C-alpha cells in the first residue's frame, strides 16, 4: 500500500488552525506544530466578516462561532471630537453573518476542532532541511520529523519565510495599538452614561480607536487603537503594559465617550505594529507560507487574520485540485489566486483609509473564496 503523504503546519494560530482544519476535513494527513507550550486565551477582540464566515461554514464551525459573538448590523465611523457619523456601512446581506468575538474564544473553537493526536505543543522550529523527496524539521527540544510538505503559518517572524528569503527583521511601522477590555460593573456604568455603538471606529486627528462587543451577551466591550509612536523597546516581547494616563494623553481633547471608555478599561496593553513589504515569492520547493508570514498588515481593516484564513482555504482548494504529488503546481495556483487580493487588503489596511468616508465594502465582505474558479496554469499563461 502506498504511504500517505504527510503535511506539517508550522504555527497553530488562527491561520494555521484554519488551514489544518480544512486539510484534515478534506482527508489529508496533517500535523500541527506550535511553539507555545500550551493553548491560552490570548488577545481580545476580532472581526469575522461574511467572507471569513463562509470559510467557517466549510470548516463545519459556522453555527458554533456565530453563537460565541455579537452580530453588529453596521460599521459606523465617527468623528473623534464631534461624534458625527463619517461613514455607515451595512454589514448584512453578504451571504453570511458578520460577528465580533473574543479572539481567544474563536481560536479555542478552531483548536478543539483539530485531531488532538496531530496537534503538538512546545515545538519551536530550529532547522529545516528539504530535498527532492521530503523535508526534515528539527525542533529546539531535539525532536525531528520528516514530512512531504510544510505550510508556514508562523507569523511575521516566520522561520519558513526566513528559509525562503533569508533573515530579515520586520520593519516597525511607526504605529502602536493599545488594547483593552471593559466588562462587569464598569461596562454597566459606561452603558448607563453613554450610548455605545455595537461596532464603531472613532477617527481622531492622526489616530483612531475601534470599539465593539466581543460576546453574544454583550457583557464585554473591547477597543483597539492605532496611534503614531516612537519605537518601543519590547525586549523581545509582543507587547508591554500601558496605563490610563498614557491613553488619555494620546486622546487628549477627544470626544467624552472615548475618554469614558479609556477610564472604564482595565489591563491596557501597547503593541508595536510591525510590517514587511510584499514578498516576491510565497513558496520554494516543498515549503509554502500563508498569512502574516507573507503579507503582514496593520489591523486597521480588521482583516489580517481573515486574509490568513482565506489563504488557508485557497491553498486547500489548490491541493485538492492538483493532488499532493503535483504540489508545485498547487503552490503556483495558490499564489496566483491570492496575491492580488491579499496585497490590496494589505495596502488599504496599512494606509488606514477603509471606511473613513462612505464607500461600498462589498469587495471585502462580499467575496466568496469558494465561488472563485481555480484556473489551470495553462489558462493563466494564456491570459
Automatic annotation (TrEMBL):
Its cofactor is FAD. GO terms for molecular function: FAD binding; monooxygenase activity. Keywords: FAD, Flavoprotein, Monooxygenase, Oxidoreductase. It holds the Pfam family FAD_binding_3. Residues 6-346 form the FAD-binding domain. This is 6-hydroxynicotinate 3-monooxygenase. It comes from Acinetobacter boissieri.
Amino acid at each position: 500500500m502506498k504511504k500517505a503523504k504527510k503535511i506539517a503546519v508550522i504555527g497553530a494560530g488562527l491561520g494555521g488552525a484554519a488551514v489544518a482544519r480544512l486539510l484534515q476535513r478534506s482527508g489529508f494527513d496533517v500535523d500541527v506544530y506550535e511553539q507555545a507550550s500550551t493553548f491560552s486565551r490570548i488577545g481580545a477582540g476580532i472581526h469575522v466578516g461574511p467572507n471569513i464566515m463562509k470559510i467557517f461554514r466549510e470548516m463545519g464551525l459556522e453555527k458554533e462561532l456565530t453563537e460565541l459573538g455579537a452580530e453588529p448590523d453596521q460599521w459606523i465611523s465617527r468623528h473623534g471630537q464631534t461624534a458625527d457619523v463619517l461613514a455607515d456601512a451595512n454589514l448584512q446581506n453578504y451571504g453570511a453573518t458578520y460577528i465580533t468575538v473574543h479572539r481567544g474564544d474563536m481560536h479555542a473553537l478552531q483548536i478543539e476542532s483539530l485531531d488532538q493526536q496531530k496537534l503538538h505543543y512546545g515545538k519551536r522550529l530550529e532547522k529545516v532541511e528539504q530535498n527532492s523527496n521530503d523535508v526534515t524539521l528539527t525542533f529546539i527540544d531535539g525532536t525531528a520529523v520528516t514530512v512531504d510538505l510544510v505550510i508556514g503559518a508562523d507569523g511575521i517572524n516566520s522561520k519558513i519565510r526566513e528559509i525562503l528569503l533569508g533573515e530579515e527583521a520586520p520593519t516597525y511601522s511607526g504605529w502602536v495599538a493599545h488594547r483593552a477590555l471593559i466588562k462587569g460593573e464598569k461596562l454597566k456604568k459606561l452603558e448607563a452614561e453613554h450610548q455605545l455603538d455595537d461596532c464603531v471606529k472613532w477617527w481622531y486627528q492622526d489616530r483612531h480607536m475601534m470599539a465593539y462587543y466581543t460576546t453574544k451577551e454583550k457583557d464585554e466591550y473591547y477597543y483597539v487603537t492605532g496611534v503614531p509612536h516612537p519605537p518601543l523597546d519590547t525586549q523581545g516581547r509582543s507587547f508591554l503594559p500601558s496605563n490610563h494616563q498614557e491613553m488619555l494623553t494620546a486622546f487628549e481633547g477627544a470626544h467624552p465617550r472615548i475618554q469614558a471608555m479609556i477610564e472604564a478599561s482595565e489591563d491596557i496593553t501597547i503593541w508595536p505594529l510591525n510590517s514587511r513589504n510584499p514578498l516576491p515569492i510565497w513558496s520554494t520547493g516543498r515549503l509554502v507560507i500563508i498569512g502574516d508570514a507573507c503579507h503582514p498588515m496593520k489591523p486597521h481593516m480588521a482583516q489580517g487574520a481573515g486574509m490568513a484564513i482565506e489563504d488557508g482555504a485557497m491553498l486547500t482548494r489548490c491541493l485538492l485540485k492538483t493532488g499532493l504529488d503535483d504540489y508545485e503546481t498547487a503552490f503556483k495556483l495558490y499564489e496566483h489566486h491570492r496575491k492580488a487580493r491579499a496585497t490590496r487588503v494589505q495596502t488599504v489596511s496599512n494606509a488606514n483609509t477603509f471606511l473613513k468616508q462612505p464607500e461600498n465594502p462589498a469587495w471585502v465582505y462580499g467575496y466568496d473564496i469558494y465561488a472563485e474558479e481555480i484556473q489551470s496554469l495553462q489558462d493563466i499563461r494564456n491570459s
